[in-house]
Request: fold
Amino acid sequence: MNFIGIDLGATKIKAGIISENGKIIDKITTDTPAGGEVHAVVNSIGMLVDRLLKTDGITARYIKDIDAEMPDIKGIGIGIPGTCNDEGLVYYAPNLFWNNVSLSELLKEKINIPVFIENDATMAAIGEATCGIAKGVSDCMLITLGTGIGSGIIINNDVYSGSHGIGGEIGHMIVGENFYDCNCGNNGCLETFSSATALIKYTKRLLKDADNNLIYGSRLFKKINGDMDLLDGKLIFDCAKKGDLIAAEAVDRLVKYLAIGIGNIINILDPEMIIIGGGISKAGDYLIDKLNREIPQNIWLKSMNLTKIVRASLGNDAGIIGSAMHAGSKLDI
Reply:
Protein backbone atom coordinates (compact mmCIF):
# COMPACT_ATOMS: atom_id res chain seq x y z
CA MET A 1 0.00 0.00 0.00
CA ASN A 2 1.44 3.33 -1.07
CA PHE A 3 0.65 7.03 -1.10
CA ILE A 4 1.84 10.04 -3.05
CA GLY A 5 3.28 13.00 -1.19
CA ILE A 6 3.62 16.39 -2.88
CA ASP A 7 5.51 19.43 -1.57
CA LEU A 8 4.30 22.53 -3.42
CA GLY A 9 6.79 25.36 -3.15
CA ALA A 10 7.12 28.79 -4.71
CA THR A 11 9.97 27.64 -6.98
CA LYS A 12 9.80 23.81 -7.05
CA ILE A 13 7.15 21.10 -6.81
CA LYS A 14 8.46 17.84 -5.35
CA ALA A 15 6.49 14.60 -5.47
CA GLY A 16 7.13 11.02 -4.45
CA ILE A 17 5.57 7.62 -4.01
CA ILE A 18 5.88 6.73 -0.34
CA SER A 19 5.20 3.37 1.26
CA GLU A 20 2.90 3.04 4.26
CA ASN A 21 5.97 2.88 6.54
CA GLY A 22 7.45 6.10 5.12
CA LYS A 23 10.00 4.72 2.65
CA ILE A 24 10.54 6.65 -0.59
CA ILE A 25 9.89 4.41 -3.60
CA ASP A 26 10.26 7.05 -6.31
CA LYS A 27 10.44 10.83 -6.44
CA ILE A 28 10.55 13.59 -9.04
CA THR A 29 10.70 17.38 -9.12
CA THR A 30 9.59 20.10 -11.51
CA ASP A 31 9.67 23.89 -11.53
CA THR A 32 6.66 25.72 -10.14
CA PRO A 33 4.98 27.68 -12.97
CA ALA A 34 6.02 31.33 -12.99
CA GLY A 35 3.80 33.55 -10.87
CA GLY A 36 2.02 30.54 -9.37
CA GLU A 37 -0.78 30.68 -11.94
CA VAL A 38 -3.41 28.37 -10.47
CA HIS A 39 -4.33 26.25 -13.49
CA ALA A 40 -0.70 25.91 -14.51
CA VAL A 41 0.15 24.65 -11.01
CA VAL A 42 -2.75 22.19 -11.11
CA ASN A 43 -1.56 20.92 -14.50
CA SER A 44 1.98 20.52 -13.14
CA ILE A 45 0.74 18.51 -10.16
CA GLY A 46 -1.30 16.31 -12.50
CA MET A 47 1.74 15.79 -14.70
CA LEU A 48 3.89 14.75 -11.72
CA VAL A 49 1.28 12.26 -10.58
CA ASP A 50 1.03 10.86 -14.12
CA ARG A 51 4.79 10.47 -14.30
CA LEU A 52 4.93 8.72 -10.93
CA LEU A 53 2.14 6.38 -11.94
CA LYS A 54 3.64 6.01 -15.43
CA THR A 55 0.17 6.44 -16.90
CA ASP A 56 1.11 8.80 -19.74
CA GLY A 57 -1.60 11.32 -18.94
CA ILE A 58 -4.44 9.06 -17.81
CA THR A 59 -4.46 9.79 -14.09
CA ALA A 60 -7.99 11.16 -14.27
CA ARG A 61 -9.08 7.69 -15.42
CA TYR A 62 -7.44 5.87 -12.53
CA ILE A 63 -10.28 3.33 -12.39
CA LYS A 64 -10.85 -0.36 -13.01
CA ASP A 65 -10.94 -0.24 -16.81
CA ILE A 66 -7.23 0.62 -17.00
CA ASP A 67 -5.24 -2.46 -17.91
CA ALA A 68 -1.77 -1.01 -17.32
CA GLU A 69 -0.08 -2.09 -14.12
CA MET A 70 0.21 0.86 -11.74
CA PRO A 71 1.32 1.39 -8.15
CA ASP A 72 -1.37 0.80 -5.53
CA ILE A 73 -1.90 4.45 -4.62
CA LYS A 74 -4.59 4.97 -1.99
CA GLY A 75 -4.32 8.74 -1.52
CA ILE A 76 -2.36 11.90 -2.21
CA GLY A 77 -1.22 14.49 0.32
CA ILE A 78 -0.17 17.98 -0.75
CA GLY A 79 1.70 20.48 1.40
CA ILE A 80 1.00 24.06 0.36
CA PRO A 81 2.92 27.22 1.36
CA GLY A 82 -0.04 28.87 3.03
CA THR A 83 -3.20 28.36 5.06
CA CYS A 84 -6.10 26.09 4.14
CA ASN A 85 -9.08 24.19 5.54
CA ASP A 86 -9.93 20.49 5.60
CA GLU A 87 -11.92 20.83 2.38
CA GLY A 88 -8.82 21.86 0.44
CA LEU A 89 -9.65 25.57 0.16
CA VAL A 90 -6.40 27.55 0.22
CA TYR A 91 -7.19 30.78 2.06
CA TYR A 92 -3.88 32.45 1.40
CA ALA A 93 -0.55 31.42 -0.13
CA PRO A 94 1.49 34.63 -0.44
CA ASN A 95 4.44 33.25 -2.39
CA LEU A 96 2.05 31.79 -4.99
CA PHE A 97 -0.14 34.92 -4.95
CA TRP A 98 -3.19 32.80 -4.11
CA ASN A 99 -6.33 33.91 -2.29
CA ASN A 100 -9.29 31.56 -1.74
CA VAL A 101 -8.25 28.90 -4.25
CA SER A 102 -10.31 25.68 -4.19
CA LEU A 103 -7.33 23.47 -4.90
CA SER A 104 -9.04 20.17 -4.09
CA GLU A 105 -11.92 20.92 -6.44
CA LEU A 106 -9.56 21.87 -9.26
CA LEU A 107 -7.50 18.73 -8.77
CA LYS A 108 -10.58 16.50 -9.02
CA GLU A 109 -10.64 17.32 -12.73
CA LYS A 110 -7.12 15.92 -13.07
CA ILE A 111 -6.80 13.24 -10.43
CA ASN A 112 -9.33 10.58 -9.49
CA ILE A 113 -7.53 9.67 -6.26
CA PRO A 114 -8.42 11.13 -2.82
CA VAL A 115 -6.42 14.31 -2.20
CA PHE A 116 -5.72 15.89 1.19
CA ILE A 117 -4.19 19.36 1.58
CA GLU A 118 -2.38 20.90 4.54
CA ASN A 119 0.21 23.58 5.27
CA ASP A 120 3.70 22.57 4.07
CA ALA A 121 5.44 23.05 7.42
CA THR A 122 2.71 21.00 9.08
CA MET A 123 3.31 18.24 6.52
CA ALA A 124 7.03 18.33 7.30
CA ALA A 125 6.21 18.12 11.02
CA ILE A 126 4.08 15.04 10.32
CA GLY A 127 7.03 13.56 8.44
CA GLU A 128 9.40 14.07 11.35
CA ALA A 129 6.81 12.82 13.86
CA THR A 130 5.98 9.64 11.94
CA CYS A 131 9.27 8.73 10.28
CA GLY A 132 11.96 11.11 11.53
CA ILE A 133 13.62 12.36 14.67
CA ALA A 134 10.32 12.85 16.54
CA LYS A 135 9.00 9.34 15.90
CA GLY A 136 7.27 8.21 19.08
CA VAL A 137 6.98 11.79 20.41
CA SER A 138 3.34 12.76 21.00
CA ASP A 139 3.85 16.53 21.44
CA CYS A 140 6.30 18.33 19.18
CA MET A 141 6.74 21.32 16.92
CA LEU A 142 8.72 21.80 13.73
CA ILE A 143 10.09 25.26 12.89
CA THR A 144 11.43 25.77 9.38
CA LEU A 145 13.93 28.59 8.99
CA GLY A 146 14.26 29.61 5.37
CA THR A 147 13.14 32.55 3.26
CA GLY A 148 10.41 32.88 5.86
CA ILE A 149 9.53 30.92 8.99
CA GLY A 150 7.05 28.08 8.88
CA SER A 151 5.84 25.85 11.67
CA GLY A 152 3.83 22.73 12.30
CA ILE A 153 2.41 21.62 15.64
CA ILE A 154 1.61 18.07 16.76
CA ILE A 155 -0.34 17.70 20.02
CA ASN A 156 -1.31 14.26 21.35
CA ASN A 157 -0.22 12.82 17.99
CA ASP A 158 -2.69 15.05 16.10
CA VAL A 159 -2.05 18.10 13.94
CA TYR A 160 -3.02 21.36 15.60
CA SER A 161 -3.95 24.28 13.34
CA GLY A 162 -6.65 26.05 15.33
CA SER A 163 -10.39 26.46 14.88
CA HIS A 164 -10.11 27.98 11.41
CA GLY A 165 -6.97 26.35 10.03
CA ILE A 166 -4.78 29.40 10.50
CA GLY A 167 -3.16 28.61 13.86
CA GLY A 168 0.42 27.64 14.58
CA GLU A 169 2.05 30.43 12.57
CA ILE A 170 5.00 31.08 14.84
CA GLY A 171 6.62 33.16 12.09
CA HIS A 172 4.04 35.87 12.75
CA MET A 173 4.43 35.91 16.51
CA ILE A 174 5.35 39.46 17.58
CA VAL A 175 8.66 39.33 19.45
CA GLY A 176 9.94 42.93 19.30
CA GLU A 177 10.08 46.16 17.31
CA ASN A 178 11.98 45.88 14.05
CA PHE A 179 13.45 48.27 11.49
CA TYR A 180 11.18 46.97 8.71
CA ASP A 181 7.65 45.58 8.47
CA CYS A 182 6.72 41.99 7.74
CA ASN A 183 5.03 41.09 4.44
CA CYS A 184 1.89 40.42 6.45
CA GLY A 185 1.74 44.15 7.32
CA ASN A 186 2.69 43.87 10.98
CA ASN A 187 5.90 45.00 12.60
CA GLY A 188 7.93 42.75 14.87
CA CYS A 189 7.07 39.32 13.46
CA LEU A 190 9.60 36.60 14.32
CA GLU A 191 10.03 36.03 10.59
CA THR A 192 11.58 39.50 10.29
CA PHE A 193 14.19 38.65 12.94
CA SER A 194 15.11 35.01 12.47
CA SER A 195 14.55 33.93 8.85
CA ALA A 196 17.32 33.76 6.27
CA THR A 197 15.84 36.88 4.68
CA ALA A 198 15.99 38.71 8.01
CA LEU A 199 19.57 37.57 8.62
CA ILE A 200 20.68 38.95 5.26
CA LYS A 201 18.81 42.24 5.72
CA TYR A 202 20.36 42.83 9.12
CA THR A 203 23.85 41.88 7.95
CA LYS A 204 23.57 44.38 5.10
CA ARG A 205 22.60 47.03 7.62
CA LEU A 206 25.58 46.20 9.84
CA LEU A 207 27.99 46.32 6.90
CA LYS A 208 26.57 49.63 5.76
CA ASP A 209 26.88 51.21 9.22
CA ALA A 210 30.23 49.69 10.27
CA ASP A 211 33.37 51.83 10.42
CA ASN A 212 36.15 51.22 7.92
CA ASN A 213 38.42 49.33 10.31
CA LEU A 214 35.69 46.81 11.10
CA ILE A 215 34.63 46.43 7.47
CA TYR A 216 38.10 45.93 6.02
CA GLY A 217 38.97 43.48 8.76
CA SER A 218 35.83 41.49 8.07
CA ARG A 219 36.18 38.02 6.54
CA LEU A 220 32.56 38.33 5.40
CA PHE A 221 33.18 41.60 3.55
CA LYS A 222 36.20 40.10 1.81
CA LYS A 223 34.23 37.01 0.79
CA ILE A 224 31.61 39.11 -1.01
CA ASN A 225 34.17 41.65 -2.24
CA GLY A 226 31.82 44.42 -1.20
CA ASP A 227 28.90 43.06 -3.29
CA MET A 228 25.93 42.84 -0.91
CA ASP A 229 23.97 40.74 -3.41
CA LEU A 230 26.37 37.85 -2.74
CA LEU A 231 25.28 37.55 0.89
CA ASP A 232 23.42 34.41 1.89
CA GLY A 233 22.60 32.68 5.14
CA LYS A 234 25.20 29.94 4.79
CA LEU A 235 28.03 32.40 4.17
CA ILE A 236 27.02 34.52 7.16
CA PHE A 237 26.92 31.50 9.46
CA ASP A 238 30.21 30.17 8.10
CA CYS A 239 31.93 33.50 8.78
CA ALA A 240 30.36 33.76 12.24
CA LYS A 241 31.77 30.33 13.10
CA LYS A 242 35.24 31.64 12.15
CA GLY A 243 34.97 34.67 14.39
CA ASP A 244 33.86 37.41 12.00
CA LEU A 245 32.45 40.13 14.29
CA ILE A 246 29.79 41.41 11.89
CA ALA A 247 28.54 37.95 10.97
CA ALA A 248 28.56 36.88 14.62
CA GLU A 249 26.50 39.91 15.65
CA ALA A 250 23.92 39.14 12.95
CA VAL A 251 23.71 35.47 13.94
CA ASP A 252 23.43 36.32 17.64
CA ARG A 253 20.50 38.62 16.89
CA LEU A 254 18.76 35.86 14.92
CA VAL A 255 19.28 33.43 17.81
CA LYS A 256 18.14 35.94 20.44
CA TYR A 257 14.73 36.48 18.86
CA LEU A 258 14.27 32.87 17.82
CA ALA A 259 14.88 31.90 21.45
CA ILE A 260 12.21 34.40 22.52
CA GLY A 261 9.74 32.81 20.09
CA ILE A 262 10.64 29.27 21.17
CA GLY A 263 10.47 30.28 24.82
CA ASN A 264 6.94 31.57 24.27
CA ILE A 265 5.95 28.28 22.63
CA ILE A 266 7.41 26.28 25.54
CA ASN A 267 5.56 28.47 28.04
CA ILE A 268 2.26 27.95 26.23
CA LEU A 269 2.41 24.37 24.91
CA ASP A 270 5.20 22.61 26.85
CA PRO A 271 6.14 20.34 23.92
CA GLU A 272 8.49 17.41 24.42
CA MET A 273 10.54 18.37 21.38
CA ILE A 274 11.08 21.34 19.06
CA ILE A 275 12.63 20.47 15.73
CA ILE A 276 14.60 23.02 13.71
CA GLY A 277 14.46 22.57 9.93
CA GLY A 278 14.91 24.63 6.78
CA GLY A 279 18.06 25.98 5.19
CA ILE A 280 19.37 27.69 8.33
CA SER A 281 19.24 24.39 10.22
CA LYS A 282 22.25 23.31 8.15
CA ALA A 283 24.31 25.39 10.57
CA GLY A 284 23.98 22.24 12.71
CA ASP A 285 25.23 22.04 16.28
CA TYR A 286 26.53 25.62 16.13
CA LEU A 287 22.94 26.87 15.93
CA ILE A 288 21.42 24.27 18.26
CA ASP A 289 24.05 24.91 20.95
CA LYS A 290 23.40 28.66 20.81
CA LEU A 291 19.65 28.08 21.13
CA ASN A 292 20.11 25.75 24.07
CA ARG A 293 22.09 28.47 25.86
CA GLU A 294 19.60 31.25 25.04
CA ILE A 295 16.19 29.59 25.40
CA PRO A 296 16.32 29.03 29.20
CA GLN A 297 16.36 32.80 29.68
CA ASN A 298 12.89 32.96 28.09
CA ILE A 299 10.98 30.20 29.88
CA TRP A 300 9.12 31.02 33.06
CA LEU A 301 9.89 27.83 35.02
CA LYS A 302 13.63 27.50 34.51
CA SER A 303 13.89 24.39 36.64
CA MET A 304 11.65 22.68 34.05
CA ASN A 305 13.87 23.32 31.03
CA LEU A 306 12.99 19.92 29.57
CA THR A 307 12.00 20.55 25.96
CA LYS A 308 14.55 19.03 23.58
CA ILE A 309 15.78 21.29 20.77
CA VAL A 310 16.95 19.16 17.86
CA ARG A 311 17.76 19.42 14.18
CA ALA A 312 15.34 17.91 11.63
CA SER A 313 16.44 14.54 10.26
CA LEU A 314 14.53 14.11 6.98
CA GLY A 315 15.96 17.11 5.13
CA ASN A 316 14.24 18.04 1.88
CA ASP A 317 12.20 14.84 1.92
CA ALA A 318 10.23 15.73 5.07
CA GLY A 319 7.48 17.44 3.06
CA ILE A 320 6.72 14.58 0.67
CA ILE A 321 6.99 11.93 3.38
CA GLY A 322 4.75 13.88 5.75
CA SER A 323 2.22 14.62 3.02
CA ALA A 324 1.95 10.94 2.16
CA MET A 325 1.62 9.94 5.82
CA HIS A 326 -1.06 12.60 6.26
CA ALA A 327 -3.07 11.11 3.38
CA GLY A 328 -2.82 7.69 5.00
CA SER A 329 -4.05 9.03 8.34
CA LYS A 330 -6.99 10.83 6.71
CA LEU A 331 -8.04 7.64 4.96
CA ASP A 332 -7.62 5.80 8.28
CA ILE A 333 -5.59 3.09 6.56
